[in-house]
Amino acid sequence: MKTHISAAAFAAFVIYLFSTVSALATEAKATAWVNVRSGPGSGYSVVDTMAKNEVGNITECRSNGWCYVQRSGPDGWVSSSYLTALTAPSDPNCRVRLVIGSGGPRFVVSCDGGSSGVDVEVGTPAPNRVCFFANNNYSGASFCRQPGLYNAMPGGFNNKISSIRLHGNAKVRVCEFRNMGPFCRDLSSSDPSIGSMLNDRISSFRVHRGGLPPLKQACLFDGNNFTGQHACFRVGVHRLPAAAFNKASSVRLHAGARVRLSQNPTYGVGGAYHITTSKPSLPAAWNNKTKSVKVE
């Protein structure tokens, strides 16, 4: 017995069929002139050639890296090493790669600077991450990290960062010493040159998306106008480390901090000089005489 299908039902079926094929396909372009073969491997016969930058639809891929491509010419199998996404990532620290999984072939962008992977599907917003570069203007060796606390730098990057690029909604707090030790600086936008106090001096950092409590700090410099060697302190009482820094000629305050200087190694013994705003030059009575501080 013959079964008759109405024109409307047939049209609906065709629409469904093509929408299904479209949903499973991934657009790709050829990176060079490449052979299109009758099967998934170099041992199969050549049925056509795919031109450089020619676009087709990948419908399936095999574990050996060969993918079936539908195109304007004869369809066939193409090595995935010659296929890429239609658009390339603008970040030089990122690369496109093809993922072959149960959900079908798809392109993702890996932004890892050669370290830990951070993948996002092509065409989606950039993930929240921060990338660190050894040179100014986001150049040189680099690595990227997603939100989290990092009390030490990855191997080879300690005290070797000069520029920082932020992606998505990420922000970062970078610190001079391990375990988030002062001096620290907060960045809410990319910086092609992070400044003398932290250039090649970052040893820990925290990547975050929301706000962090203000970081009150007082930094003492052995030169006027906040120059020369420095030592920074957070809220609390501190003795200046005589072996590394035993003098102060100027004081810079951060995030609303106030500081009291003492000429005695034991704070509270003797008088104190109260500073509520940054001082590019300490008075003669206190120049190079500070032994301990109290940051408030």
Could you please describe the fold and organization of this structure?
This protein has one helix at about 5-25; strands spanning about 25-30, 35, 45-50, 55-60, 65-70, 75-80, 85, 95-100, 105-110, 120, 130-135, 140-145, 150, 165, 170-175, 180-185, 205-210, 215-225, 225-235, 235-240, 250-255, 260, 270-275, 290-295. The model is unreliable at about 1-25 and about 115-120 (pLDDT under 50). The protein has a five-stranded antiparallel sheet, with helices on one face. It is rod-shaped, with a radius of gyration of 30 Å. Strand 2 and strand 3 form a beta hairpin. The chain folds into three domains: about 5-85, SH3 type barrels; about 85-210, Sandwich (Gamma-B Crystallin, domain 1), CATH 2.60.20; about 215-295, Sandwich (Gamma-B Crystallin, domain 1). The chain starts with 6 loop residues before the first helix and ends with a strand. By secondary structure, the protein is mainly beta.
Features:
single chain; 296 residues; mainly beta; SH3 type barrels; Gamma-B Crystallin, domain 1; five-stranded antiparallel β-sheet; four-stranded antiparallel β-sheet; 1 helix; 24 strands; rod-shaped; disordered N terminus
- Describe the strand arrangement of the main beta sheet, using strand numbers: 6-5-4-1-7
CATH topology of the largest domain: Gamma-B Crystallin, domain 1
Strand content: 35-45%
Helix content percent band: under 10%
User: Which blocks of ≥5 consecutive residues have pLDDT under 50?
Assistant: 1-23, 113-118
Instruction: Give me the secondary-structure category.
Output: mainly beta
Mean pLDDT over the residues: 84
Largest sheet: 5 strands, antiparallel
